[in-house]
Design a protein that fits this description.
The protein has 530 residues and is of the alpha/beta class. The protein has 16 helices and 21 strands. The chain starts with 5 loop residues before the first helix and ends with a strand. Bound molecules: 1-deoxynojirimycin. One of its GO terms (molecular function) is alpha-amylase activity.
Length: 530
């Protein structure tokens, strides 16, 4: 695999399609809307776009409940719109990655209708059906990720079915070879249309314990947490046989040139890296969410980068993520100034970065009024702060009504700052966060040191996080002040050069010799002289 394969060098941009651009005034983003905005993505400098699910769906979980793996939901458009989108993306040199949701279907999927129709239906075993426990209750203690028991009683056939998420999202039985073949055919359907890869939803969930043993209790559980945390997910996910399935998916992708397999995996580092597979036969990129899960603290992040770099198997390629449609926005979590530092971190670490739409315009904390709540998880477990609506609000394009997102009523309210903080205004401002993102991405594109170069930690104390990126004779120092006070980084003797980029965008070409001083909440990239 050459060092310069697109998914290694490139930057991935995640679009939550409901919220990117509406083209027909129904208040929900769509494929034609995304197509209208491709030139923006080119101007931002990203290489690939990952679109959250656009398949036919009753939208109980906004598309993560698929009723037809080979169809486009009318909310998002038609197959023709899809073909036009992929053609327009490729014409601009952009890759297109789809979301694949293999763990569960919608309860409206024809497969499930057949499966639940009788115990003897040929598709009965395509889903996970079990008898009740001797007391008549659910077969075991597994909890749904969205709260409540993970088993739903089916009166007509007198058995329970398993759903790791909503009851409208029954889990497929991936131990059944027919299920596997049907799902691999769905992958091929999109690969044949030119799709460049997949982000696979909850890939570590696909295989469950063959004996359906109870999960052990989690002694650290607090009632303020989501109910799923009551038990440790020892038997309901991350089973050894899952790697066989991931390997099979990888082989399907390998029937086509240069496709990428990205796995959504929330597991501790040592478990996460097993998803690269034996001899790298698994996912190309098991999503690394460590920056989301670690406190925003320089020492902890420095340690985590070291641990991650050390844990990746030989030849495995790293990747980094700051946010997605399930996690509080980075700007909401660490504030506007540090969100700039975070952007510099994400775009200068070794490994493929995935950006989340809207972070580049600095969307921060958004309050969702009670009567506007959409997220089914929030509806199931209200009041615990679990809602994913705040990170799913519409993109801000210009200063017009609804930020140019829609001419109708948006499905979720926009962040009220949209009147000033929008693509059009920020593009003209040489010190805006959007300008910073553009410059960071351009710099990364220009210098192999920043994308595929070696990562070498630089000793630093307190709030300072520092490292070098090296390729050939090129050496960059990245110094990030994660604190709110000025800080000076003393470099090894003889290190001098000039600043290439500050997160404040006001120190270009400034020389330094032996040390660099950073203001509060500032990050710097500097080029070292030979
Ligand atoms: C992970 C997805 O990212 C999330 O949005 C979804 O609710 C669950 N998987 C279930 O598909």
């Amino acid at each position: 695999m050459p060092e310069t394969t697109w998914w290694k060098r490139g930057v991935v941009y995640q679009i939550y399609p409901r919220s990117f651009q509406d083209s027909n005034g129904d208040g929900i983003g769509d494929l034609a809307g995304i197509r209208q905005r491709l030139d923006y993505l080119v101007s931002l400098g990203v290489d690939a776009v990952w679109i959250s699910p656009i398949y036919t769906s009753p939208m109980a979980d906004f598309g993560y409940d698929v009723a037809d793996y080979c169809g486009i939901d009318p909310i998002f458009g038609t197959m023709k719109d899809f073909d036009r989108l992929i053609e327009a993306a490729h014409a601009r040199g952009l890759k297109l990655i789809l979301d694949f949701v293999p763990n569960h279907t919608s309860d409206q999927h024809p497969w499930f209708a057949e499966s639940r129709s009788s115990r003897t239906n040929p598709k009965r075993d395509w889903y996970i059906w079990r008898d009740s426990a001797p007391d008549g209750g659910p077969p075991n203690n597994w909890i749904s990720n969205f709260g409540g028991p993970a088993w739903e009683w089916d009166e007509a056939t007198g058995q329970y079915y398993y759903h790791a998420f909503l009851k409208e999202q029954p889990d497929l039985n991936w131990r059944n070879p027919e299920v596997r073949q049907a799902m691999y055919d769905a992958l091929r359907f999109w690969l044949d249309r030119g799709v460049d890869g997949f982000r696979v939803d909850v890939i570590w969930h696909l295989i469950k314990d063959a004996e359906f043993r109870d999960n052990p209790p989690n002694v650290a559980y607090q009632p303020s947490q989501a109910e799923i945390n009551r038990f440790l997910q020892v038997h309901s996910a991350d089973q050894p046989e899952v790697h066989e399935v991931v390997g099979e998916m990888r082989r399907v992708l390998e029937e086509y040139p240069e496709r990428v397999l990205i796995g959504e995996i929330y597991l501790p580092l040592e478990r996460l890296v097993t998803y690269y597979g034996q001899d790298l036969s698994g996912a190309h990129l098991p999503f690394n969410f460590q920056l989301i899960q670690t406190a925003w603290n320089a020492r902890e992040i420095a340690a985590l980068i070291d641990e991650y770099e050390a844990a990746i198997p030989d030849g495995g390629w790293p990747n980094w993520v700051l946010g997605n449609h399930d996690q509080p926005r980075i700007g909401a979590r660490i504030g506007k100034q540090q969100a700039r530092v975070a952007a510099m971190l994400l775009l200068t670490l070794r490994g493929t970065p995935t950006l989340y739409y809207g972070d580049e315009i600095g969307i921060g904390k958004v309050e969702i009024p009670e009567d506007a709540v959409q997220d089914p998880w929030e509806k199931n477990e209200p009041g615990l702060g679990l809602s994913r609506d705040p990170e799913r609000t519409p993109m801000h394009w210009d200063g017009s009504a609804q930020g140019g997102f829609t001419t109708g009523r948006p499905w979720l309210p926009l962040d009220p700052t949209f009147t000033q903080c929008h693509v059009e205004a920020l593009s003209k401002d040489p010190t805006s966060i959007l300008t910073l993102y553009r410059r960071l991405i351009a710099l990364r594109r220009q210098h192999l040191a920043l994308s595929v170069g070696r990562y070498v930690p630089v000793e630093a104390q307190g709030d300072m996080l520092a490292y070098e990126r090296r390729h050939g004779s090129e050496r960059f120092v990245v110094a990030l002040n994660l604190g709110h006070r000025p800080h000076t980084l003393v470099l090894p003797v003889g290190a001098n050069g000039h600043v290439v980029l500050s997160t404040f965008l006001d120190r270009d070409d400034e020389p330094f010799d032996g040390q660099v001083s950073l203001r509060a909440d500032e990050g710097l990239i500097a080029l070292l002289q030979d």
